[in-house]
Amino acid sequence: MVIKIIITIFIISLFANTCLAATKANSLTNQKYSDIERKDHKRDNETKAKQLSRNMKVYRYAERKKDLLKDVKPKEHMTSHVDRGRPISGATAKNRYGLSYKPRYRETVNVEKGTMAKKTKVVGGDPGRGELTVTEKIRKTMTSNLTKLPN
What we know:
Blueprint lengths: L1 H45 L3 E2 L4 E7 L14 E3 L10 H8 L7 E7 L4 E6 L8 E5 L8 E6 L3
Antiparallel strand pairs: 1-5, 2-4, 3-6, 4-7, 5-6
């Protein structure tokens, strides 16, 4: 009987510590993403836009399908190129590109030669991973291939 009580107390304390650690991790994650967004915004403001020398195909990720049914707004981040093969999972995209959310959809965007854009490196994602930020609106007609990402 005493052993059962001791085991029960141990399990309860273990569960409480796990919950506390999860709460701390969540607040650290929120802190991490606010720092990333601040650094990203600062870097974007310091980077000069240049005209693209060639047509490019890039990806744009989103949590909701309706977000991809609109024009690409200025300052919206996209990947620097299109990868071959199967689509990556939402979790992989989140980690690779330093996103604050797990995307569920991906869209291919055709960026025309001469478009003003900033080519930079992802902040908070894989080291050396590139991204493209346009400084002018890209019409919905220049987008294609809406893909639901695997889990």
